[in-house]
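Dissemination and training. As part of the outreach component of the grant, students in the summer workshop were shown how a complex can be specified as a set of sequence lines and then modelled as a single object. The example used during the hands-on session is reproduced here so that future cohorts can follow it. Participants entered these lines:
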Amino acid sequence: MKAGSNLEQVLEKGLFAVTAELGPKQGVDAADIRHKAGLLKDYCDAMNITDNQTAVVRMSSIGAAIIVRQMGLDPVIQIVCRDRNRLAIQADVLGAAAHDVMNVLALTGDHQTMGNHPQAKNVHDIDSLQLLQCLKGLREGRFMNGDPLKTAPPKLFIGAAANPFGGPLEYRVSRLAKKINAGADFIQTQPVFDMDIFKRYMEDARERGLHEKTHILAGIIPMKSAAMAKYMRDNVAGVILPDDKVNRMANSIKGIEDKEEKKKRQAEEGVKIACEEIEQVREIKGVHGIHIMAVAWEEIVPKVVSKANLKERPKRLPDN
Amino acid sequence: MPEAAVETVEKREPQTVRAAEKFEPNIVAFCCHYCAFAAADLAGVMRLQYPANTKIIRIPCTGKIDIIYLLRAFEKGADGVFVAGCLEGNCHFMKGNIVARKRVEYTKKLIKDVGIEPERLEMYNLSSAMGPRFAEIAREFTSKIKEIGPSPLRPKRAG
Amino acid sequence: MIVGERKPVGEIWGMIKGFRKVLVFGCNTCVAVCFAGGEKEVGILASQIRMKAKQENVDMLVIEGAIERQCEHEFIAAAKDQIESADCVLSIACGAGIQFTGEDFPHKIILPGLNTTGINVVEQNGVFAERCQSCGDCVLHLTGGVCPISRCSKSILNGPCGGSHDGKCEVNPEIPCGWQLIYDRLKLQGRLEILDEVIPAKDWRPSRDGGPRKIIREDLQE
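and obtained this result:
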C-alpha cells in the first residue's frame, strides 16, 4: 500500500472502483461542499475536487478537500501546473497531507485565456510529468531539489489524467506509459464517448502491459442536455463526441413543448447513455473503474451509479 | 517623390467654403505611365470633359507608390486622392498594380485612424485605350469628394 | 529578428499631445525588417501625427530621424543634435532601443511608439511568427528542433497536453500545437524514441526568472 486511502484499497482489492467529481462554488461556502459530498458519499469510493477548473477561480481544491476529509470521506485533490510553481505545489501537498488527504491528481490545466482571468500570467514552472515525479519523490521523502524532508514523508496515492482522444491519437498510449513510469498509481481518463477509439487505446495499452502497472478509470460525463452535448462536441478541446449521441440527446425532446418535460427527458437520455457507456467500459479488460464527471450536476451521480448497478460500494475502512 | 506637382496643390488659393456647392475639391491622381496616364492623355485628345480639379501625377507604375506619397498628398491639402493603374493581370510590370492595391487598402486604415474618411482614397484599374473611363473616374471621384466635403485637414473657416 | 508593432495612433497621441516639438525616432535594423519602426515607418507615423495635430488644432512640430540601431551608443550619439532639439522623443525602436536612447539622454523624455513582441521569423511576406522565448537554456536537441517553450502555449516540456486536437492548440485554432509539430518532426526523422524519456523540470534561472541577464565577454572589452 502506498498510502492506504480508501480508493487505493478498493483498487488493490481488485474491485471495480467508482470516483466522482465535486466542483466547488465561486466563493466561500463550506456548507455547499458538505452538501455535495453528502450526495456523493455512498455512491463513490473517492471524490475529486476540481482545481480552478476551466481556468475559472473557485474555492481551492485543497480547501474543499479538507472539509471532505473531515467528514471521514476520501477526497482526491487536483493540482494544475498552470497556477502554481514548484515551491507552492510542494508546500500545498505537504499541507494537504497534514490533513490526511492522500489522493493527488497531477494535471496540466486548461489555458487561462479560456477562463475568467485571461489576463493572468502562465505559471507552468513544471508540467504534469514532472509533477508526477515530484509527488513520487515527496512520498519517498525527497523534495524536488533532492533535499530530504525533515519529517516522515506524506502518504500519497498518485494519479494522472489521460486523454485517449487528444492529438496525436497514435501517441496517446506512449504518453500514458510515460506517466506510469513517472509515478502514476492510477489514471482517470477524459470522457469516453467514442467507444471504438477507447477500445483501440486499451488494446494498445494492454499490449504494452500498462493495465497491470496502473489502475485505469474510464471517464464518464452524463449529459444534461442536447445543448451541452453540442457544446462539448464543438468547443471542448480534446473531447470526441460522436454525432449519434448528440442526435440522441436532440431527438429525446422531439415534439415536446413543455419546458419541464424537456429537461426531464434530456436528463433521462443523458443518464441512459452514461449507463450504456459504463456497461461497455466494464467489459474492457484493464479498466479498473470509472470516474464520473457530472459537471455542475453532482445530484445525478446517485442515479447513474444505481442504474449502472454499482450502488453497492465497498464499505469504507477505518483510517489507518 | 514627385514633390513639385503636390506643392502646386498646396500653393493654390485656399478655398472659402461658403456653401457645399461652392466647394471645389483638390484631387490628386497618381497615374501609371502605361495605362492610366495614357488613358488620361487619350481623354484629352478625345476632348472629353473631366473636372479640372484633378491634378495628375505620372509615375512609371502604381507599384512605385509608397504609402508616404499618399499621406503627404493629404497633408499638403488634397481632399481626395486616387491611384489609377493597369487592369489586374495586365500590369506592365507584372504585379505593380497588385501591391499598389494592398498599399492603398492599408493606407485607408492609416488615414481612418487619424480622422480622415477612408473614402477619400481609392484605387482604380483601366487600360490605356479607356479614355472615356478615365474621364468617368475623374468625374465620379470628384463628385464623391464634393459630397463628403473638404478634408478635415483644411484650415477651419467661419461658416 | 526582434519584432514589434506600432502602438495605436490614439495611444501615441495621448502620450505626445502636450509637447511642442516631437522627434519620431526610428531604428533601421530589426524593426525595419518587420516594417514597424524603420525610416519609412517614421515618415508614415510622423505624417499621421501631423494630420492628427492639425485636426486637434495643436501646434506641434514633428521632426523625423532614424539611425542604424538604437541598441548601440555610437549610433545614438550620431543623432545627438536632433534628440537634444526635441521636447520629447517618440522612439519606434524595440524596447531595448527605446530604453538605451533614454540611457544616453537621461534628461530627455523618451516615449515608446512600439510594442515589442518577440523574437520572430518571417514565415512569409507580411507574416511574422514567434519562435524563441530566450529561455537561456536551449532544448531544441531534445525536441527535434521545435521549441516547446515558445511554440507550446503552456511551455510544457513533456507534451502534448490533453487539449491538442487536429494538430491545433486549445487556445486558438490558428495556433498549431507545438507538441504535434515536435511529434511530426521526430516521426519524420525516425526518432520518436526520444520522447520516451521524461525531460526533467527546467532550471529557469538562465531565463528572465533568474533576474535581468547580462553577458560579459572580457576578450571584447576595451
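The mean pLDDT of chain A is 95. Students were then asked to discuss how this feature might be tested experimentally.
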